[in-house]
Amino acid sequence: MTIANWCVLAACVLPIMTVGIAKAHSAKMPRDAGRYDNSNPREWAKGLSGWQQRANAAQQNGFEALPLFIAAVLLAQQAHVDQGRIDQLAILFIALRIVYTISYLMNQGTLRTLIWGAGLATSIALLLMA
Hints:
- Helices cover 78% and strands 0% of the residues.
- The protein has five helices and no strands.
- It has helices spanning 3-25, 41-46, 50-78, 83-105, 109-129.
- The longest helix is centred in the middle third of the chain and has 29 residues, at 50-78.
- The radius of gyration is 17 Å and the shape is elongated.
- 32% of the residues are buried.
């Protein structure tokens, strides 16, 4: 597997890990006080606030960013673009997604938006190379 392919896997796992932090934080709470409910996870998510709500939103945005990134990597590889360049941009995308998530959890809206834009530009750059 190429580095870019590993980055596709990382991009798929990152949103799950993001909301996992919020779920793990609630593990010690009583069920009626906001503990994660695996039987009804969407209802649990509706009751979130603060950084846990932002973690859930970051998870959703992570899943929303996946289609373009995956397509861009695959199409660039299919077009026989230099694999080293694809790998570099894929690593950059993952790094940006990690920083994006941190900025989201820290409630840094403007910074988060700038990082999101850079991640989008990275996917578009991959796609344009194809």
